[in-house]
Every structure is written in C-alpha cells, then in structure tokens.
Design a protein that fits this description.
The protein is mainly alpha-helical and 301 residues long. The protein contains twelve helices and four strands, in the order αααααββαββαααααα. The chain has two domains: 150 residues, no CATH class; 121 residues, no CATH class. Helix content is 46%, strand content 7%. A two-stranded antiparallel sheet has the order 1-2. Strand 3 and strand 4 form a beta hairpin.
Length: 301
C-alpha cells in the first residue's frame, strides 16, 4: 500500500457541486434535501477512519432510505439512494459533469500514477473504501475515494467489514503501516530461483493492524500481482550479476535492498532484494562462484 495524504477537499462542497445541475429539478431538490445528512455522514466517516474503525459505521449502511426489501426492479421509480449512487457515476465520473474536476484531483494524487492499494498497477479509477451500493451517503465523500487500479478495485469487491480485522488498509489513514516491514519474499533453490511473496507482520506491529495487513494482502490477491512483476526483474538481475564476482554481487544486492527499502519498504522490489541479499547461496550461484572470482581477477590484471 502507498500511503497518501488525505484530500483537502470539503465533502459538502464536493457533494453540492456534483448535484448542482442534477436533472430533473425534482431529483436535484431531493438531493439537496439530504445534503446535511451527507455532510454529517462524511464527518462520521473521517472520525471512524482516523481510529481504524470503519466497521463501526453499520448504522449508516443503506441510508438515508434504508435497505431495499427486494432486488430493485428497473421499472420501479428510482429511490434517493439510487440518485445518491448516481451522483458518483453520472455527476462525478462523467467527463462533462460538474464534479469531474474533483475526480481528476483525487486521481492525480496517486504517487507516480500508481495504485495506492497495491503500489504497482496504474491508478486509473477511484475505489470506494466503503462501497457506494451499501453506503450511498459516501458515494462522493473524498475520504472514501482512493486512487486504484482496476484489478485492485475488482478484487476488493463490495465486501463490508464487520470487525476491525477485516478492513483493508486505507491509504489516507493507515499511514503508519510502512513504519513496519511486513512484506517478505521467499527465494527457493535450485537456480534459477523461484520467488513468492507473503504478508508477515512483525511481532512489534499492533495485532489489529497486523490482521488488517494480512487481510489486505489476501483479499487484493497481491501475491498474484507481485509474482509476475518479479520474474523479469530477476532474469535481468541474473544477467547483470554474472558480470560480478560473488563478493561484489552480494554487496550490490545489499545496496539495492537498502535503496528500495528507503523508497518503499513494503514494495515487492524491496522485499525481493532483501530476500536475495539475505540468501546464503544466490550471489555465489548467479555470479559463477570461483570461476567468477577468477574472471574478475583476470580482468583486473
């Protein structure tokens, strides 16, 4: 996950701008009438998210109208909840909508244009941390919208946590998560090695946060995301290290591990290089053992 500063956008202003030209007039009036509820819900969201307690907002689920009694019939009149959800799809995402400026601001905040949930994919959409289908009051709440790739957005689905441990990490509020190194890679012999990725929070990490880290990694299927990225990196690295003697290869791996850990401690790159640097056999094997040492001495002579 890539931590990101909270948006500075005012939730009420965003909502009122999005609905300012809603049509027909009766829909706009209905949306204006719930503006206070939307603003109050956004404030409650921020308070709960700051504490890592989004699961405590169950009372706001399906509000303001309440959970539908049965699956919506498209021939039935749309409800206020339907119009609230459409405030995102039609009045924020739509390129010609009044709210598109806010969509662009939120999306542009993605670090290097990358998904804040996996740190790898292209951030080309906004993910609702609490799904708009279950929480229409949060449909355009800035704190609920994070830049994400489509893969993470899909994998995250519309699941709603009922306990704190089942919450995925929130890029705006879980900024302390990268004070810990919790993403690890495992390198297995024989050569060429295979690499797998795992979420293994340290014992010093608070228990609830550790559970959330594991849930985030599992629910977003990050092992599947990182594995294919690491494979070509490893092949290229293998070719590069063959030019070095084992001691130099080992030093280079440690330097890469340190640099990537500074850049992003829980990136797949940092995890990969930490694992390779810690390997007792990899640098020796890839650089050719004694033959590599002899080649290096001959080149120096």
């Amino acid at each position: 996950m890539l931590p990101l500063p909270r948006p500075t956008l005012d939730a009420r202003k965003v909502y009122e701008t999005c609905i300012s030209n809603a049509r027909p007039a009766r829909v706009r009036t209905a949306l204006q009438q719930v503006a206070d509820q939307v603003a109050a819900a956004a404030a409650a969201y921020t308070e709960a998210a700051t504490k890592g307690e989004l699961h405590t907002l169950a009372a706001l689920q399906h509000q303001p109208e309440g959970k539908p009694s049965k699956k919506s019939d498209k021939d039935q009149p749309k409800t206020i909840n339907d119009h609230l959800k459409a405030t995102y799809t039609s009045r924020m995402v739509h390129e010609k909508s009044k709210g598109r400026v806010f969509y662009n601001i939120l999306l542009a905040a993605a670090p290097d244009g990358r998904c804040t949930l996996c740190g790898q994919g292209l951030a080309d959409t906004l993910d609702h941390q609490l799904p708009k289908d279950g929480y229409p009051l949060f449909a355009v709440a800035p704190d609920n919208l994070v830049p994400a790739c489509r893969s993470c957005n899909t994998n995250k689905r519309d699941d709603v946590a009922v306990v704190a441990e089942e919450q995925t990490l929130h890029p705006y509020f879980d900024t302390d998560v990268n004070k810990y190194i919790w993403l690890v890679a495992r390198v297995s012999a024989p050569f060429p090695p295979a690499v797998t990725f795992h979420a293994e929070p340290p014992s010093s990490m608070p228990l609830v946060l550790a559970a959330r880290v594991r849930h985030h990694f599992s629910s977003l299927q990050l092992a599947r995301t990182y594995g294919p990225q690491a494979a070509p990196e490893l092949r290229t690295l293998n070719r590069s290290l063959k030019r070095l003697a084992p001691p130099a290869a080992s030093q280079h791996l440690h330097e890469l591990a340190e640099d990537w850990t500074v850049e992003q401690p829980n990136s797949w790159q940092a995890a990969l290089y930490r694992a390779l640097a810690a390997s007792c056999w990899y640098a020796w094997e890839v650089s050719g053992g004694p033959d590599a040492t002899a080649r290096s001495a001959k080149a120096d002579g």
